[in-house]
Amino acid sequence: MDITILYGTETGNAEMLAEDVQSALEDAGHEVVVENLSDVAPADLDVSRLHLVICSTYGDGELPASAQPFGEAMKDAPDLSGLRFGIFGLGDSEYETFNMGSQQIEEMLVAAGAERIGERVTHDASGDDMAEDVALPWAEAVVEAVGADA
Prior knowledge:
Layout (H helix, E strand, L loop, with lengths): L1 E7 L4 H15 L3 E6 L13 E7 L11 H6 L10 E8 L8 H12 L3 E2 L4 E4 L6 H19 L1
Parallel strand pairs: 1-2, 1-3, 3-4, 4-5, 4-6
């Protein structure tokens, strides 16, 4: 399966997690590309590829710096019907704005016609689990769901 992992990050945590997910999916035989949301325009999204989005939350719940240009561009987004995506959030439940970054990206994509596969899964930095211990099963489940539909 051809997969694009998009990440939005402030301090690099989502980028590192995206690379871990990439490695695991490549080991399973998938062709995977990782891109920073700062380098992607909505019109560039290829609907023939599954998209996995990993986004952290920054400050008072706004998108992290690398996802802000994408968020701005989504205000004039093209029709993204046919785009399938999974969404994963990184955050800290100690803050009232827990995982609002991933929620915002999800809402933008759905409003443009994209289809979310599975539930939005989040990692809590205040919890005991490592982010990759939550993200890898999430990614595998999204890929499996899309594969079952093929």
